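Hi team,

Filling in the usual template for the complex we talked about on Friday. All components are listed, including any nucleic acid strands or ligand strings, so the model treats them as one assembly.

SUBMITTER: L.P.
PURPOSE: interface mapping
COMPONENTS: two
RESIDUES: 517
SEQUENCES:
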Amino acid sequence: MATGYLSVIVLLPIAAVVASAFSGGVGASWSAATSPVALSALKLTLISAAVVTAINAIMGTLIAWVLVRDSFPGQRIVNAVVDLPFALPTIVAGLTLVALYGPDSPLHINLAYTSTAVFVALLFVTLPFVVRSVQPVLHALDAEMEEAAVSLGASSATTFRRIVLPNLMPSILSGTALAFARAVGEYGSVVLLASNIPFKSQVMSVFIFGEVENGSPHAAAAASVLLLAISLAVLLGIRGLARLGRGHR
Amino acid sequence: MSVPRPARLGLRAIALGYLALLLLLPVGLVFEKTFAHGLSSVWASLSTPAAVSALWLTLEITLIAVFANTIFGVVCALVLVRGRGRARWLLDLAIEVPFVISPVIVGLSLILVYGTTGWFGKWLATHGIGVIFNPLGMILATMFVSLPFVAREVAPVLREVGTEQEEAAATLGASRLQTFLRITLPSIRWGLAYGVVLTTARALGEYGAVLVVSGNISGHTQTLPLLVDTRFYNFDSTGAYTAGALLAAISIFVLVIMTMTAPDKRRL
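RESULT (copied from the run log):
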Protein backbone atom coordinates (compact mmCIF):
# COMPACT_ATOMS: atom_id res chain seq x y z
CA MET A 1 0.00 0.00 0.00
CA ALA A 2 2.75 2.42 0.99
CA THR A 3 4.64 1.69 -2.20
CA GLY A 4 1.52 2.13 -4.32
CA TYR A 5 0.77 5.54 -2.84
CA LEU A 6 4.38 6.64 -3.23
CA SER A 7 4.38 5.47 -6.84
CA VAL A 8 1.23 7.37 -7.77
CA ILE A 9 2.04 10.58 -5.92
CA VAL A 10 5.81 10.85 -6.52
CA LEU A 11 7.35 8.28 -8.87
CA LEU A 12 4.81 8.41 -11.71
CA PRO A 13 5.14 12.22 -12.12
CA ILE A 14 8.95 12.00 -11.99
CA ALA A 15 8.87 9.32 -14.66
CA ALA A 16 6.76 11.64 -16.81
CA VAL A 17 9.38 14.40 -16.53
CA VAL A 18 12.20 12.06 -17.54
CA ALA A 19 10.16 10.58 -20.40
CA SER A 20 9.21 14.03 -21.65
CA ALA A 21 12.81 15.25 -21.54
CA PHE A 22 13.87 12.43 -23.86
CA SER A 23 10.68 12.16 -25.94
CA GLY A 24 11.93 14.21 -28.90
CA GLY A 25 15.33 12.54 -28.88
CA VAL A 26 18.29 14.68 -27.89
CA GLY A 27 17.04 17.50 -30.06
CA ALA A 28 15.05 20.66 -29.63
CA SER A 29 14.23 20.40 -25.94
CA TRP A 30 17.87 19.82 -25.01
CA SER A 31 19.10 22.72 -27.07
CA ALA A 32 16.70 24.91 -25.06
CA ALA A 33 17.93 23.44 -21.79
CA THR A 34 21.56 24.11 -22.73
CA SER A 35 21.01 27.52 -24.33
CA PRO A 36 23.15 30.41 -23.04
CA VAL A 37 20.20 31.73 -20.97
CA ALA A 38 19.66 28.35 -19.32
CA LEU A 39 23.36 27.79 -18.67
CA SER A 40 23.69 31.23 -17.12
CA ALA A 41 20.71 30.46 -14.84
CA LEU A 42 22.30 27.13 -13.95
CA LYS A 43 25.60 28.81 -13.13
CA LEU A 44 23.94 31.40 -10.87
CA THR A 45 21.92 28.67 -9.15
CA LEU A 46 24.89 26.42 -8.44
CA ILE A 47 27.31 29.16 -7.36
CA SER A 48 24.88 30.89 -5.01
CA ALA A 49 23.71 27.56 -3.58
CA ALA A 50 27.32 26.51 -2.91
CA VAL A 51 28.35 29.80 -1.27
CA VAL A 52 25.18 30.03 0.82
CA THR A 53 25.37 26.47 2.10
CA ALA A 54 29.04 26.96 2.98
CA ILE A 55 28.20 30.07 5.03
CA ASN A 56 25.30 28.36 6.76
CA ALA A 57 27.41 25.27 7.46
CA ILE A 58 29.70 27.49 9.54
CA MET A 59 26.98 29.68 11.05
CA GLY A 60 24.73 26.66 11.65
CA THR A 61 27.44 24.84 13.58
CA LEU A 62 28.12 27.99 15.61
CA ILE A 63 24.42 28.47 16.39
CA ALA A 64 24.05 24.80 17.36
CA TRP A 65 27.03 25.14 19.70
CA VAL A 66 25.57 28.25 21.34
CA LEU A 67 22.20 26.50 21.74
CA VAL A 68 23.66 23.35 23.30
CA ARG A 69 26.80 24.36 25.22
CA ASP A 70 25.97 27.92 26.22
CA SER A 71 23.12 28.97 28.50
CA PHE A 72 21.38 32.30 28.67
CA PRO A 73 17.86 33.59 29.34
CA GLY A 74 15.50 33.22 26.38
CA GLN A 75 17.43 30.30 24.90
CA ARG A 76 14.26 28.29 24.26
CA ILE A 77 12.82 31.15 22.25
CA VAL A 78 16.00 31.40 20.18
CA ASN A 79 15.79 27.66 19.63
CA ALA A 80 12.25 28.04 18.31
CA VAL A 81 13.18 31.02 16.10
CA VAL A 82 15.68 28.82 14.23
CA ASP A 83 12.70 26.85 12.86
CA LEU A 84 11.13 30.01 11.41
CA PRO A 85 12.34 29.39 7.83
CA PHE A 86 10.85 25.86 8.01
CA ALA A 87 7.50 27.17 9.25
CA LEU A 88 7.23 30.31 7.13
CA PRO A 89 5.72 29.83 3.64
CA THR A 90 8.30 30.62 0.95
CA ILE A 91 6.17 33.40 -0.53
CA VAL A 92 6.05 35.11 2.87
CA ALA A 93 9.83 34.75 3.12
CA GLY A 94 10.05 36.41 -0.29
CA LEU A 95 7.71 39.17 0.84
CA THR A 96 9.75 39.84 3.99
CA LEU A 97 12.86 40.21 1.86
CA VAL A 98 11.07 42.66 -0.46
CA ALA A 99 10.07 44.67 2.61
CA LEU A 100 13.65 44.79 3.84
CA TYR A 101 15.70 44.91 0.63
CA GLY A 102 13.14 46.09 -1.95
CA PRO A 103 12.74 49.51 -3.56
CA ASP A 104 11.30 50.98 -0.31
CA SER A 105 14.01 49.48 1.87
CA PRO A 106 14.18 51.12 5.30
CA LEU A 107 17.91 50.32 5.24
CA HIS A 108 18.28 51.98 1.83
CA ILE A 109 19.64 48.74 0.39
CA ASN A 110 17.83 47.98 -2.85
CA LEU A 111 18.58 44.46 -4.04
CA ALA A 112 15.56 44.08 -6.34
CA TYR A 113 16.35 42.29 -9.65
CA THR A 114 19.94 41.50 -8.62
CA SER A 115 21.79 38.25 -8.11
CA THR A 116 22.53 39.35 -4.52
CA ALA A 117 18.78 38.99 -3.88
CA VAL A 118 19.05 35.30 -4.78
CA PHE A 119 21.89 34.99 -2.34
CA VAL A 120 20.01 36.66 0.56
CA ALA A 121 16.85 34.60 -0.05
CA LEU A 122 18.79 31.32 -0.06
CA LEU A 123 20.64 32.34 3.11
CA PHE A 124 17.25 32.75 4.79
CA VAL A 125 15.63 29.46 3.72
CA THR A 126 18.66 27.19 4.29
CA LEU A 127 19.54 28.40 7.78
CA PRO A 128 17.91 25.64 9.91
CA PHE A 129 19.30 22.56 8.13
CA VAL A 130 22.79 22.41 9.64
CA VAL A 131 21.64 23.65 13.08
CA ARG A 132 19.03 20.89 13.26
CA SER A 133 21.35 18.11 12.12
CA VAL A 134 24.27 19.15 14.37
CA GLN A 135 22.25 19.92 17.51
CA PRO A 136 21.27 16.36 18.58
CA VAL A 137 24.79 15.06 17.85
CA LEU A 138 26.42 17.81 19.89
CA HIS A 139 23.91 17.12 22.65
CA ALA A 140 24.86 13.47 22.75
CA LEU A 141 28.58 14.20 22.48
CA ASP A 142 30.19 13.61 25.84
CA ALA A 143 31.71 16.74 27.36
CA GLU A 144 34.23 14.48 29.18
CA MET A 145 36.36 14.02 26.09
CA GLU A 146 36.63 17.77 25.69
CA GLU A 147 37.42 18.24 29.38
CA ALA A 148 40.13 15.59 29.16
CA ALA A 149 41.72 17.40 26.23
CA VAL A 150 41.63 20.71 28.08
CA SER A 151 43.08 19.19 31.27
CA LEU A 152 45.92 17.78 29.15
CA GLY A 153 46.73 21.33 28.15
CA ALA A 154 44.91 21.76 24.83
CA SER A 155 43.60 25.25 24.09
CA SER A 156 39.88 25.59 23.38
CA ALA A 157 40.64 26.17 19.70
CA THR A 158 42.68 22.94 19.55
CA THR A 159 39.99 21.05 21.46
CA PHE A 160 37.38 22.23 19.01
CA ARG A 161 39.48 21.38 15.96
CA ARG A 162 40.75 17.99 17.13
CA ILE A 163 37.87 16.67 19.28
CA VAL A 164 34.56 18.40 18.58
CA LEU A 165 34.77 19.07 14.85
CA PRO A 166 35.68 15.51 13.75
CA ASN A 167 32.73 14.19 15.74
CA LEU A 168 30.35 16.71 14.23
CA MET A 169 31.59 16.47 10.64
CA PRO A 170 29.16 13.76 9.41
CA SER A 171 26.14 15.67 10.74
CA ILE A 172 27.44 18.98 9.37
CA LEU A 173 27.84 17.38 5.94
CA SER A 174 24.41 15.73 5.92
CA GLY A 175 22.76 19.01 6.94
CA THR A 176 24.75 20.83 4.27
CA ALA A 177 23.65 18.31 1.63
CA LEU A 178 19.97 18.88 2.41
CA ALA A 179 20.48 22.65 2.48
CA PHE A 180 22.21 22.53 -0.89
CA ALA A 181 19.39 20.49 -2.44
CA ARG A 182 16.85 22.93 -1.06
CA ALA A 183 18.82 25.95 -2.34
CA VAL A 184 19.16 24.54 -5.85
CA GLY A 185 15.40 24.03 -6.23
CA GLU A 186 14.18 27.09 -4.32
CA TYR A 187 11.53 29.17 -6.07
CA GLY A 188 9.07 31.10 -3.89
CA SER A 189 11.44 33.06 -1.69
CA VAL A 190 13.72 33.95 -4.61
CA VAL A 191 11.29 35.04 -7.28
CA LEU A 192 9.67 38.09 -5.63
CA LEU A 193 12.87 40.03 -4.97
CA ALA A 194 15.20 38.65 -7.65
CA SER A 195 12.49 38.40 -10.31
CA ASN A 196 13.51 36.77 -13.60
CA ILE A 197 16.06 38.88 -15.45
CA PRO A 198 17.92 36.51 -17.83
CA PHE A 199 21.73 36.50 -17.46
CA LYS A 200 21.37 38.51 -14.26
CA SER A 201 19.02 37.27 -11.54
CA GLN A 202 17.26 34.30 -13.12
CA VAL A 203 17.80 31.02 -11.30
CA MET A 204 17.09 27.59 -12.75
CA SER A 205 13.69 27.04 -11.09
CA VAL A 206 12.52 30.43 -12.40
CA PHE A 207 13.81 29.54 -15.88
CA ILE A 208 11.90 26.24 -15.77
CA PHE A 209 8.76 28.05 -14.61
CA GLY A 210 9.09 30.41 -17.57
CA GLU A 211 9.38 27.51 -20.01
CA VAL A 212 6.21 25.93 -18.57
CA GLU A 213 4.33 29.24 -18.88
CA ASN A 214 5.55 29.65 -22.47
CA GLY A 215 4.00 26.31 -23.34
CA SER A 216 7.25 24.40 -23.86
CA PRO A 217 6.97 21.62 -21.28
CA HIS A 218 9.54 19.45 -23.07
CA ALA A 219 12.25 22.10 -22.75
CA ALA A 220 11.22 22.60 -19.12
CA ALA A 221 11.48 18.84 -18.58
CA ALA A 222 14.95 18.70 -20.13
CA ALA A 223 16.14 21.56 -17.91
CA SER A 224 14.57 19.81 -14.91
CA VAL A 225 16.41 16.57 -15.64
CA LEU A 226 19.68 18.50 -15.98
CA LEU A 227 19.10 20.27 -12.64
CA LEU A 228 18.04 17.07 -10.89
CA ALA A 229 21.05 15.16 -12.17
CA ILE A 230 23.46 17.81 -10.90
CA SER A 231 21.86 18.21 -7.47
CA LEU A 232 21.63 14.44 -7.09
CA ALA A 233 25.33 14.08 -7.94
CA VAL A 234 26.28 16.73 -5.37
CA LEU A 235 24.01 15.14 -2.77
CA LEU A 236 25.49 11.69 -3.25
CA GLY A 237 29.01 13.18 -3.27
CA ILE A 238 28.47 14.89 0.09
CA ARG A 239 26.86 11.74 1.53
CA GLY A 240 29.90 9.78 0.36
CA LEU A 241 32.22 12.26 2.09
CA ALA A 242 30.21 11.94 5.30
CA ARG A 243 30.45 8.15 5.15
CA LEU A 244 34.19 8.39 4.49
CA GLY A 245 34.56 10.63 7.55
CA ARG A 246 32.63 8.18 9.71
CA GLY A 247 34.80 5.31 8.46
CA HIS A 248 37.97 7.07 9.58
CA ARG A 249 36.97 7.23 13.20
CA MET B 1 33.92 22.66 26.58
CA SER B 2 35.43 25.19 28.96
CA VAL B 3 35.50 28.13 26.64
CA PRO B 4 36.74 31.35 28.25
CA ARG B 5 33.91 33.70 29.12
CA PRO B 6 34.71 36.51 26.64
CA ALA B 7 34.93 34.01 23.78
CA ARG B 8 31.63 32.45 24.83
CA LEU B 9 29.92 35.81 24.97
CA GLY B 10 31.40 36.64 21.58
CA LEU B 11 30.04 33.44 19.99
CA ARG B 12 26.66 34.07 21.62
CA ALA B 13 26.58 37.59 20.21
CA ILE B 14 27.46 36.36 16.71
CA ALA B 15 24.78 33.65 16.78
CA LEU B 16 22.04 35.91 18.11
CA GLY B 17 23.02 38.80 15.84
CA TYR B 18 22.93 36.56 12.76
CA LEU B 19 19.51 35.19 13.67
CA ALA B 20 18.08 38.64 14.44
CA LEU B 21 19.40 40.17 11.23
CA LEU B 22 18.50 37.25 8.98
CA LEU B 23 15.16 36.15 10.46
CA LEU B 24 13.54 38.50 12.96
CA LEU B 25 14.15 41.85 11.29
CA PRO B 26 12.51 40.94 7.95
CA VAL B 27 9.57 39.07 9.51
CA GLY B 28 8.90 41.90 11.97
CA LEU B 29 8.90 44.36 9.11
CA VAL B 30 6.04 42.52 7.34
CA PHE B 31 3.83 42.93 10.38
CA GLU B 32 4.87 46.57 10.65
CA LYS B 33 3.92 47.18 7.00
CA THR B 34 0.62 45.34 7.48
CA PHE B 35 -0.56 47.49 10.38
CA ALA B 36 0.87 50.73 9.00
CA HIS B 37 -2.56 51.76 7.65
CA GLY B 38 -4.54 50.80 10.73
CA LEU B 39 -6.65 47.86 11.80
CA SER B 40 -9.69 48.66 9.69
CA SER B 41 -7.76 48.41 6.43
CA VAL B 42 -6.32 45.08 7.58
CA TRP B 43 -9.83 43.78 8.18
CA ALA B 44 -11.09 45.16 4.85
CA SER B 45 -8.27 43.44 3.02
CA LEU B 46 -8.84 40.10 4.74
CA SER B 47 -12.62 40.04 4.38
CA THR B 48 -12.82 40.37 0.59
CA PRO B 49 -14.53 37.39 -1.07
CA ALA B 50 -11.23 36.43 -2.75
CA ALA B 51 -9.37 36.37 0.58
CA VAL B 52 -12.07 34.40 2.39
CA SER B 53 -12.27 31.79 -0.37
CA ALA B 54 -8.46 31.58 -0.50
CA LEU B 55 -8.32 30.92 3.23
CA TRP B 56 -10.92 28.13 3.01
CA LEU B 57 -9.29 26.49 -0.01
CA THR B 58 -5.91 26.58 1.75
CA LEU B 59 -7.38 24.90 4.83
CA GLU B 60 -9.25 22.27 2.76
CA ILE B 61 -6.17 21.31 0.73
CA THR B 62 -4.02 21.21 3.86
CA LEU B 63 -6.50 19.00 5.68
CA ILE B 64 -6.68 16.45 2.85
CA ALA B 65 -2.92 16.37 2.25
CA VAL B 66 -2.11 16.05 5.96
CA PHE B 67 -4.68 13.28 6.43
CA ALA B 68 -3.40 11.24 3.47
CA ASN B 69 0.27 11.75 4.30
CA THR B 70 -0.21 10.91 7.97
CA ILE B 71 -1.67 7.50 7.15
CA PHE B 72 0.95 6.92 4.47
CA GLY B 73 3.73 8.11 6.76
CA VAL B 74 2.86 5.70 9.58
CA VAL B 75 2.45 2.73 7.22
CA CYS B 76 5.67 3.65 5.43
CA ALA B 77 7.61 3.94 8.70
CA LEU B 78 6.27 0.53 9.76
CA VAL B 79 7.40 -0.98 6.46
CA LEU B 80 10.82 0.69 6.70
CA VAL B 81 11.51 -0.32 10.30
CA ARG B 82 9.55 -3.56 10.80
CA GLY B 83 9.38 -4.87 7.25
CA ARG B 84 11.56 -7.65 5.91
CA GLY B 85 11.53 -6.82 2.21
CA ARG B 86 14.86 -6.57 0.41
CA ALA B 87 13.90 -3.44 -1.49
CA ARG B 88 13.35 -1.33 1.63
CA TRP B 89 16.43 0.78 0.84
CA LEU B 90 14.73 1.75 -2.39
CA LEU B 91 11.66 2.98 -0.48
CA ASP B 92 13.98 4.79 1.91
CA LEU B 93 15.61 6.58 -1.03
CA ALA B 94 12.37 7.27 -2.94
CA ILE B 95 10.79 8.92 0.07
CA GLU B 96 13.55 11.57 0.08
CA VAL B 97 12.71 12.67 -3.46
CA PRO B 98 10.23 15.42 -2.48
CA PHE B 99 12.94 16.98 -0.28
CA VAL B 100 15.45 17.36 -3.10
CA ILE B 101 13.18 18.30 -5.97
CA SER B 102 12.24 21.86 -6.91
CA PRO B 103 8.54 22.71 -6.34
CA VAL B 104 8.41 24.02 -9.91
CA ILE B 105 9.49 20.60 -11.21
CA VAL B 106 6.76 19.00 -9.08
CA GLY B 107 4.18 21.20 -10.78
CA LEU B 108 5.61 20.47 -14.22
CA SER B 109 5.57 16.73 -13.56
CA LEU B 110 1.86 16.83 -12.68
CA ILE B 111 1.10 18.75 -15.88
CA LEU B 112 2.96 16.07 -17.86
CA VAL B 113 0.83 13.33 -16.28
CA TYR B 114 -2.59 14.97 -15.91
CA GLY B 115 -2.50 17.95 -18.30
CA THR B 116 -4.41 18.02 -21.61
CA THR B 117 -1.41 16.67 -23.53
CA GLY B 118 -0.23 14.55 -20.61
CA TRP B 119 -0.25 10.79 -20.16
CA PHE B 120 -3.81 10.62 -18.74
CA GLY B 121 -5.01 13.86 -20.35
CA LYS B 122 -7.30 12.27 -22.96
CA TRP B 123 -8.84 9.80 -20.54
CA LEU B 124 -9.49 12.48 -17.91
CA ALA B 125 -11.01 14.80 -20.50
CA THR B 126 -13.45 12.17 -21.81
CA HIS B 127 -14.53 11.37 -18.25
CA GLY B 128 -14.88 15.04 -17.38
CA ILE B 129 -12.36 15.00 -14.54
CA GLY B 130 -10.38 18.22 -14.19
CA VAL B 131 -7.01 17.96 -12.46
CA ILE B 132 -4.77 20.73 -13.79
CA PHE B 133 -6.25 24.21 -13.13
CA ASN B 134 -8.53 22.54 -10.58
CA PRO B 135 -8.30 21.97 -6.82
CA LEU B 136 -7.58 18.26 -7.42
CA GLY B 137 -4.24 19.08 -9.07
CA MET B 138 -3.39 21.41 -6.20
CA ILE B 139 -4.14 18.66 -3.70
CA LEU B 140 -1.85 16.28 -5.61
CA ALA B 141 0.93 18.90 -5.68
CA THR B 142 0.59 19.53 -1.94
CA MET B 143 0.56 15.79 -1.19
CA PHE B 144 3.76 15.41 -3.23
CA VAL B 145 5.77 18.13 -1.49
CA SER B 146 4.66 17.30 2.06
CA LEU B 147 4.91 13.51 1.75
CA PRO B 148 8.12 12.62 3.62
CA PHE B 149 7.71 14.42 6.97
CA VAL B 150 5.58 11.95 8.97
CA ALA B 151 7.51 8.90 7.79
CA ARG B 152 10.84 10.66 8.50
CA GLU B 153 9.82 11.57 12.06
CA VAL B 154 8.06 8.29 12.97
CA ALA B 155 10.66 5.84 11.62
CA PRO B 156 13.47 6.68 14.14
CA VAL B 157 11.00 6.59 17.06
CA LEU B 158 9.74 3.16 15.97
CA ARG B 159 13.33 1.95 15.73
CA GLU B 160 14.04 3.23 19.23
CA VAL B 161 11.02 1.68 21.00
CA GLY B 162 11.76 -1.80 19.65
CA THR B 163 9.35 -4.71 19.35
CA GLU B 164 9.35 -6.23 22.87
CA GLN B 165 6.10 -4.67 24.07
CA GLU B 166 4.33 -5.50 20.82
CA GLU B 167 5.47 -9.12 21.07
CA ALA B 168 4.29 -9.29 24.67
CA ALA B 169 0.88 -7.97 23.66
CA ALA B 170 0.69 -10.52 20.84
CA THR B 171 1.55 -13.45 23.13
CA LEU B 172 -1.14 -12.26 25.55
CA GLY B 173 -3.65 -12.68 22.75
CA ALA B 174 -4.02 -9.16 21.35
CA SER B 175 -4.98 -8.91 17.70
CA ARG B 176 -2.70 -6.98 15.34
CA LEU B 177 -5.09 -4.06 15.29
CA GLN B 178 -5.29 -4.01 19.10
CA THR B 179 -1.51 -4.14 19.37
CA PHE B 180 -1.18 -1.26 16.95
CA LEU B 181 -3.82 0.91 18.61
CA ARG B 182 -2.85 0.27 22.22
CA ILE B 183 0.92 -0.29 22.08
CA THR B 184 2.49 1.05 18.89
CA LEU B 185 0.44 4.22 18.41
CA PRO B 186 0.87 5.58 21.96
CA SER B 187 4.62 5.00 21.84
CA ILE B 188 5.09 6.92 18.59
CA ARG B 189 2.65 9.74 19.40
CA TRP B 190 5.22 12.52 19.87
CA GLY B 191 7.16 11.70 16.71
CA LEU B 192 3.82 11.45 14.90
CA ALA B 193 2.65 14.80 16.27
CA TYR B 194 5.86 16.51 15.19
CA GLY B 195 5.61 14.95 11.73
CA VAL B 196 2.00 16.12 11.37
CA VAL B 197 2.96 19.66 12.40
CA LEU B 198 5.79 19.76 9.84
CA THR B 199 3.46 18.41 7.14
CA THR B 200 0.87 21.05 8.03
CA ALA B 201 3.42 23.87 7.88
CA ARG B 202 4.61 22.78 4.46
CA ALA B 203 1.10 22.15 3.07
CA LEU B 204 -0.24 25.53 4.28
CA GLY B 205 2.53 27.48 2.61
CA GLU B 206 3.18 25.59 -0.60
CA TYR B 207 3.57 28.08 -3.42
CA GLY B 208 5.76 26.99 -6.36
CA ALA B 209 4.20 23.59 -7.06
CA VAL B 210 0.66 24.84 -6.53
CA LEU B 211 1.27 27.94 -8.68
CA VAL B 212 2.26 25.82 -11.68
CA VAL B 213 -0.82 23.55 -11.59
CA SER B 214 -3.49 25.94 -10.34
CA GLY B 215 -3.86 28.63 -12.98
CA ASN B 216 -4.46 30.93 -9.96
CA ILE B 217 -8.16 31.61 -10.64
CA SER B 218 -9.60 33.86 -7.93
CA GLY B 219 -12.41 32.16 -5.99
CA HIS B 220 -11.69 28.80 -7.62
CA THR B 221 -8.03 27.78 -7.43
CA GLN B 222 -6.48 30.55 -5.36
CA THR B 223 -4.88 29.67 -2.04
CA LEU B 224 -3.46 32.18 0.43
CA PRO B 225 0.11 32.01 -0.96
CA LEU B 226 -1.31 32.55 -4.46
CA LEU B 227 -3.38 35.49 -3.19
CA VAL B 228 -0.16 37.06 -1.88
CA ASP B 229 1.36 36.49 -5.31
CA THR B 230 -1.60 38.06 -7.18
CA ARG B 231 -1.77 41.11 -4.94
CA PHE B 232 2.00 41.60 -5.11
CA TYR B 233 2.09 41.58 -8.91
CA ASN B 234 -0.99 43.85 -9.06
CA PHE B 235 0.98 46.45 -7.07
CA ASP B 236 -1.41 46.08 -4.12
CA SER B 237 1.48 45.92 -1.68
CA THR B 238 -0.62 46.58 1.45
CA GLY B 239 -2.97 43.76 0.43
CA ALA B 240 -0.01 41.46 -0.20
CA TYR B 241 1.55 42.28 3.17
CA THR B 242 -1.79 41.73 4.93
CA ALA B 243 -2.36 38.30 3.36
CA GLY B 244 1.31 37.51 3.99
CA ALA B 245 0.97 38.53 7.63
CA LEU B 246 -2.06 36.26 8.02
CA LEU B 247 -0.04 33.36 6.59
CA ALA B 248 2.90 34.29 8.81
CA ALA B 249 0.62 34.40 11.87
CA ILE B 250 -0.70 30.91 11.06
CA SER B 251 2.89 29.67 10.59
CA ILE B 252 4.03 31.20 13.86
CA PHE B 253 1.14 29.42 15.57
CA VAL B 254 2.29 26.19 13.90
CA LEU B 255 5.85 26.99 15.04
CA VAL B 256 4.70 27.23 18.66
CA ILE B 257 3.07 23.80 18.40
CA MET B 258 6.22 22.57 16.64
CA THR B 259 8.37 23.63 19.59
CA MET B 260 5.99 21.99 22.02
CA THR B 261 5.95 18.67 20.17
CA ALA B 262 9.62 18.56 19.10
CA PRO B 263 11.39 15.32 20.08
CA ASP B 264 13.16 15.40 23.44
CA LYS B 265 16.69 15.37 22.10
CA ARG B 266 16.11 18.73 20.46
CA ARG B 267 14.45 20.24 23.48
CA LEU B 268 16.62 22.26 25.78
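MY TAKE: Chain A touches chain B through 89 residues (CB under 8 Å). Chain A has 13 helices and no strands.

Thanks, L.
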